[in-house]
Amino acid sequence: MADEGDIDNSEDASQISSIVHRRVGHISVPYKHFILVWGGFMGGHDDYEVYCSSEHVWVYNCISETWSVLVTKGYIPFPNSGSTAVILDDALYIYGGVEELTDDLWRYGCELHCLDLKNLTWTTLVPNGNSPEGSDKAVGWTYNKKIYIFGGYGQCSRCMVNGYSFEVDPNNRLDKGWNNQLSIYDPSMNRWTTPKTGGVPPRPRAAHAADVSGDKVYIFGGRLAEIRANDMYVLDLKKLHWTQISLKDGSFEIPEGRSWHSFNFITENRAILFGGLSRNQIPCGDLWECQIEDNQVTWNLQGTVPNDQTLVWHRTAVSNATKELVIVGGVTCSPYRMKEENHVGTLHVIPFTPPSLLSLSLQEIVNEGIIFHLLRKDCFLPKCLLDLIKNKFKVRNNKAVIYCKEHESVMKQ
User: Fold this and answer.
1) Which of 63, 129, 320, 342 could join 331 via S-S bond, C-beta 3.0 to 4.6 A?
2) Domain of life here (predicted)?
């Protein structure tokens, strides 16, 4: 990851939390044994919003449990909230969102940005074809080396041409609203396409959640006008055919409708739904597990959190290394009424499998004081392993390590 010469400083957890965790509208995606966090803003500053730096990408190492910050270069995007992000090979792709052009000027982004994770250089792509509408709070995923974007809230100019539905927001004077556009980007051709799909697609929506399992993507909830849905749709990515998922026979439990929630598969047919904002604009504190078989779903409530620990507009990712659900950011109230103190200041990690032998060994070394014997000059352990143990010790002692590597990737190992 980084040697001691790369350490910019070490700060306590409270200082780290104010930089990393206190945000909404950000992206969080898994890459190797890391979680990448970018963008978003912190609300509640005397009725104005503080956008996070778009130059910095924060990296959480799921093995050492430490944070690093990467300083990027190139054609850096504007500060952004509500964009859609995916990882494809060794690149981070960002589309849409609300871009902060100046302190008092915003727009819905319609550009596709690519960050090369090997050299940390941004490129603004200029694809052929019909790009998606400029919108925020859409969902995205990858399949067969292509990028998919669905839904969102924003402007409408080509819905009749591209064949998707658009519903105008009656409370907005600028003809903004919700869409159900499906767009596919092929990096090998540098081209956007609008595919023809079969079945009945979901109604327009934004702030919904989606995840891929095998050859299918599942979409749950989201907002359309005053409706916050609790429906689930599946798109067969081979056939491009939509199907609405029904409750399994004999099953009656179902989560209430919501937006700004998270939905992640932890196995091929088991997914976790957490948090969000309910139809009555009340934060949801429930965590559900769903099992999907033959386009039928069974919901099981796993538990609820106290009112002061509910999460809305958070971002989640399942670690490729530990299979834990890593939750970053969010607020404990409705985003329409959030204040600075409503932002969460800690990272939440939910394990769904037993810890690895490496994790257990590191914990034992730290807990039993073995670390002090390993730090002697005659220690035979490799430096990379010693650094991992040191970082684990700092985390245990309520310390979070920040590495700052300018224009150089920390993700080479």
Assistant:
1) 342
2) Eukaryota
Model confidence, pTM: 0.89
Bridge-based pairing of strands 166-168 and 176-186 is antiparallel
Rounded distance between C-alpha atoms, residue 62 and residue 363, angstroms: 14
Question: Quick one: tokens of 251?
Answer: 């099953």
Low-confidence spans in the chain with pLDDT less than 50: 1-13, 397-413
Query: Residue 52 burial (CB < 10 Å; 0-12/13-18/19+)?
Result: buried
Distance in angstroms (rounded) separating the CA atoms of residues 44 and 311: 16
What is the pairing mode between strands 399-406 and 66-71?
A: parallel
Residues sharing a CB contact under 8 Å with residue 365, sequence separation 6 or more, in sequence order = 371, 374, 389, 392
* CA-angle at 406, arms to 405 and 408, nearest 5°: 75
DSSP string of 366-384, one letter each residue: HHTTTHHHHTSTT--S-HH
Q: Among candidates 77, 142, 149, 156, which has minimal Cα distance to 109?
A: 77
Determine the Cα–Cα distance for residues 327 and 347; give it in Å rounded to an integer: 6
pLDDT of residue 392: 62
| Close Cβ partners of 104 (under 8 Å, ≥ 6 residues apart) | none
Q: How many CB atoms lie within 10 A of CB 409?
A: 17
Beta bridge partners of 93: 86, 114
Closest by CA position to 153, among listed 182, 178, 183, 174: 178
Provide the pLDDT for residue 359: 74
For residues 9 and 15, the answer to whether their CB atoms sit within 8 Å is no
| Distance separating alpha carbons of residues 51 and 173, to the nearest angstrom | 25
